[in-house]
Amino acid sequence: MATDDSANDNVSLALQMKDKANELFKTNKYEDAIEYYTKAVTFDPTSAVLYGNRSFAHLKMESYGYALDDATKAIEIDPNYIKGYYRRASANMALGKFKKALKDFEAVKKARPNDKDARVKFEECNKIVKREAFEKAIRVEDSKSVSDTIDLGSMAVEDEYVGPRLDGEITAEFMKDLMQHFKDQKILHKKYAYKILLEIKIMMASLPSLVDVQIPECGHITICGDIHGQYYDLLNIFEMNGVPSQDNPYLFNGDFVDRGAFSVECVLTLFGYKLLYPDYFYLSRGNHESHTLNQMYGFEGEVREKYSSKMYDLFTEIYNWLPLAHCINGRVLTMHGGLFKEDGVTLKDIREIDRNRQPPDEGLMCDLLWSDPKMLPGRSPSKRGCGIQFGPNITEGFCKLNGLDLIIRSHEVKNEGYEVAHNGMCITIFSAPNYCDTMGNKGAYITLTQNLKPKFTTYEAVPHPKVKPMQYASPLLGLFS
User: Fold this and answer.
1) What average pLDDT does range 222-234 have in this prediction?
2) Cα dihedral 413→422→351→389 (10° resolution)
3) What is the set of active-site residues?
């Protein structure tokens, strides 16, 4: 009897924790909600609903790996718990695993044949799977590069076009005019946009996967993190810190695009400066420089809206050639995501990565783009579903093996725009303030001189035109809620 009373007490406590979590969820306090759902699970680990609710909160936090695990656990506890299949399908869609998502939506449709919502979600996901199969077949039949099909000479510039012209090499004056043109919400003529893209592809393809950067004596370099299509905040960085030049070099550490509604403007500006100052301006690939995420989070839709499908395909080819990491003065390694699932990885291993492809689901390239640091020692599965989480001992061991002082990575929103972790050996830098117009965070950038001691500059978001973030995102994102 005492055992039964104890079990009932635990269930009652779990319900109290769940009710508290639900209230926090309703006010968008997802992290706090997860904490209370976790407490509820400790009291009642046999409840599919608790795992399902926590999975939903993880989806809101974009911790798709955790969401996937919780949804799977809910289904294991109760195979008839339909929301578990919804949650797992949503997590798989966010990770670009559409075939797996389709199986779960199909299970929901079979369980609820008269459920209109279930049918719509199945049909929308099925469209993506069929589209991907079609595109894959087309690529196999036509192996020609998009860049080989573009004829700049046949593109006429209309008399009524009023904007910067690029008839020769890029100049500082052209870049100044281009940034003002974009600031005024005007589009660069497609001929000049294509010219930038064709030239940047050649340049990127000539670079190694790991680029060495040397700060000259009495010189410096500015390192920026995620920009995510927030063009007016990018302009603010240049306003505060000066435009790029031979005396004012920059490194942008990936995730130039997606979410923000001015991704085209951001990436064309960054590409333009790379062409103007190839030895003083550096670009790394982020996890969002990929087709899977671009089709979900807005960049594909934005390029199609402002230019064409062909131009989007060219962007995809270029992203495959972006370097994966930079090593500054042989002592500081920068990458978008983080470290690796295995010990013993050297800078030579990174330099030899064959990067001309879409990001894989595992391996060194995946980890460089997706991994995150954690406070506890060791490694653990990624909350995102790709890469890993790595502790301070992993960072220390990697740096010691490769003769490094520290690593600088991006990839995560931080309230102050940056975070120093792992005893100063792992720095996160994030440069998109008030991310998606909702997070309220500051942006930041790092200045490094020859002593390699980071100096942080933080800033608030600046006003931008009334175009909402995610303006061009796939409507399929609505399936996640």
Assistant:
1) 98
2) -60
3) 288
